[in-house]
Amino acid sequence: MAWLKSLPLFVQLLGFAVSMMYLPMAFAIRLEDWDVARTFFYHTTFLLILIALVGIAVTGYASRNSARHYLLTVFGAFLTIPALLAMPFNYLVPSITYFQAYFEMLSSLTTTGATLFLDPSLVPAPLHMMRAIVGWVGGFFILVVALSIFAPLQIGGFEVFAATRGGQKGTNQIANADASQRLIRYASQIFPVYVFVTAILVLCLLIAGDRTLVAVSHAMSIISTSGISPVGGLEGANSGYAGEVLMFLFLFFAVSRHTFFFSTDTEVMQNLKLDKEVNLVLICITVIPILLFIRHWTAAFEGTGTDSFATAITAFWGAVFTVLSFLTTTGFESSAWEGAQSWSGLGTTGIILMGLSIMGGGIATTAGGVKLLRIYALYKHGQREIERLSHPSSVSGSSSRTRIIRREGAQIAWIFLMLFVLSLALVALALSATGISFSDSLLFATAGLSNTGPLAHAAGESFTGYANISDTGKAILCVAMVLGRLEALAVIAVLNPNYWR
């Protein structure tokens, strides 16, 4: 065990990710699918032997343990791990190429959830389990990375809080300090809670009527916000609305960074109550469904002959669940979402889903997107500027922390938003150059950068599947998924010439 802890983080990540493939192997043994079980056993064992040899070769290597160094390691891990996981996937699905298998695994690891298979029956059940596990591991990985690496470097949304005038020196000292202890501490704190809440949701879905594979996959997808489903979405599940209610409650783990510390933080309820991200989410899941609901009697009213109380409640629930699902970049549609669209009479709901996915969830969570804290900082800044139009000499009575978020925090949030929009434009133009229509290119670019793979299916009117995109287009989407998962500020930090000296 001491030898494993002494290995570089990159080698540890490779070993941990590859060893997780023994779980779908065990599931294949349970199903008595011996060909799939042998394939997983051979590939996993062979890759672990190679990783062990690499570990022996680098034993005693003293690497820099600063957060900046680990940022490069994280970047390399997102590019390398899917290449190893794609080997058994490509072997078991001979109809796809190795690069397409790489796309599938990278999509799972970045919790994007974009899949090449519109028909889930084309893929063996253990491979669906593998996709869910890879997404679940990717969600846990980004949680630990956000708290132990992004926070000291003032990226990933933490720059909104850290934009103080006098805190730069202390932050630089933390960024250059040993980050390995922070990685171990946060991993040991989060992992038990991460496993516990996943197991609780699995048990609840099993009680609600889901099969084992569906319950495990959907539970892992909800906790990691990957949106991976072995049955093509919630409509194929047997748990019905009871399962949706359960998943709705657990989606709040992607709203605030405080949710995974309820076992160690005695003031977690107070923190959640004061968390601006939670308040913003509550506003979104209340206001947007109400507006869609009211529109039935304003712009879409055609009579009350088909209206009923049950239809109205079902439509409202479909809107509430879908709004929270896409706001956390999970991408699950409620089985009542189609009814909610018909009730509202709005034919362009895809734009609403795109906007919610771009907003994203909370900082230091498994959700992607711009992040709610940045949206809140821009909102407070805009609110203050509107007040100053009427009262130019007024003095705000808020606290110093709020003033920092409204001034320096809003400035850096605006810079990130512009980087996100610029990235969105470049990715959309690159996809358009491969022959995809501009509207579909914008949709695919939004799905990739916000790590919401199911968005293309939910919001696209002419969506025919990711499999119909050329390999060049898939490569562009791979870049977009990694860029969205690590965020533009982190990638810019990696490309900073200061790292090369």
Q: If you had to describe this structure to a student in words, what would you say it looks like?
A:
This protein is mainly α and 501 residues long. Helices cover 68% and strands 0% of the residues. The longest helix has 34 residues, at 400-433. It is globular, with a radius of gyration of 23 Å. It starts with a helix and ends in a 7-residue tail after the last helix.
Defining key terms:
single chain; 501 residues; mainly alpha; 23 helices
Largest β sheet strand count, sense and barrel closure: none
How widely separated are the two ends? 34 Å
Give the averaged pLDDT, no decimals: 86
Number of strands: 0
Helical fraction: 55-70%
DSSP helical segment count? 23
- Low-confidence spans: none
**Which structural class do you get from the secondary structure elements?**
mainly alpha
How many whole angstroms does the radius of gyration measure?
Answer: 23 Å
What portion of residues belong to β-strands? under 5%
Specify the overall morphology: globular
Order of helix and strand elements from N to C terminus: HHHHHHHHHHHHHHHHHHHHHHH
